[in-house]
Amino acid sequence: MSELSVRLRPVAEDDLVMFRRFATEPGLIGLDWTGFRDAQAPARRFAADGYLGTQDSRLLVEVEPDEVAAGFVSWALRDFGGPTKHWEIGIALLPEWRGRGIGWRAQAMLCDYLFRHTPFQRIQAGTHPENIAEQKSLVKAGFHLEGVVRACEFRDGRWCDGYLYSRLRDDPGPA
């Protein structure tokens, strides 16, 4: 299988169909499914700022040369209670695009973009202990495991642990 070319681009109105699917199709988003969401919220958010806000944003993950939407990456401003801020990133790929080397490249590209265009020192990402593929993807994208965040998420009727990863501005990027 040849390596797919991946690029990130701003969200377009046609992409809202995919965002509605993530909000309304159980299991499409994998372990991150937390129940049905407002199917009209993606259109309202797109109308407000095109998903390029100051506090949180999204870019579409596109596979070339056919310019097919594979999913999206997101980032949000976070802090640990003090004046210093950092980014927290995430990714959601459609099932048919998972396991094809797209996720780690998209996340590495997003980190490069954020380090290039914002002054923040830290980018972090969380994942589920059972999501081995995402753990490998984050490491491949230049992240380091920091530890377990106990009982941090209510999912599927119970409290679940999470794994916290980070990449600092001075960390080496992916090979």
List the main descriptive attributes of the protein structure presented here.
single chain, Aminopeptidase, 25% helix, seven-stranded mixed beta sheet, 4 helices, 175 residues, alpha+beta, globular
Describe this structure in words.
The protein is of the alpha+beta class and 175 residues long. The protein has a domain at 5-123: 3-Layer(aba) Sandwich (Aminopeptidase). The chain is built from four helices and seven strands, in the order E-H-H-E-E-E-H-E-H-E-E. Helix 3 packs across helix 4. 23% of the residues are buried.
Characterize this entry briefly:
With 175 residues, the protein is of the alpha+beta class. Helix content is 25%, strand content 37%. The protein is built from 4 helices and 7 strands, in the order βααβββαβαββ.
Q: Distance between termini?
A: 20 Å
Helix content: 10-25%
β-strand amount: 35-45%
Total helical segments = 4
Can you tell me the CATH architecture of the domain at 5-123? 3-Layer(aba) Sandwich
CATH superfamily of the domain at 5-123: Gcn5-related N-acetyltransferase (GNAT)
Structural class determined from secondary elements: alpha+beta
Overall residue-averaged pLDDT value: 94
Shape: globular
Runs in which pLDDT lies below 50 for 5 or more consecutive residues are none
Radius of gyration: 16 Å
Characterize the largest beta sheet: strand count, sense, and whether it forms a barrel.
7 strands, mixed
Q: In CATH's first tier, which class of the domain at 5-123 applies?
A: Alpha Beta
Q: What name is given to the CATH topology of the domain at 5-123?
A: Aminopeptidase
Task: Give the H and E element order.
Answer: EHHEEEHEHEE
Strand order of the largest sheet: 1-2-3-4-5-7-6
Q: Report the count of strand segments.
A: 7
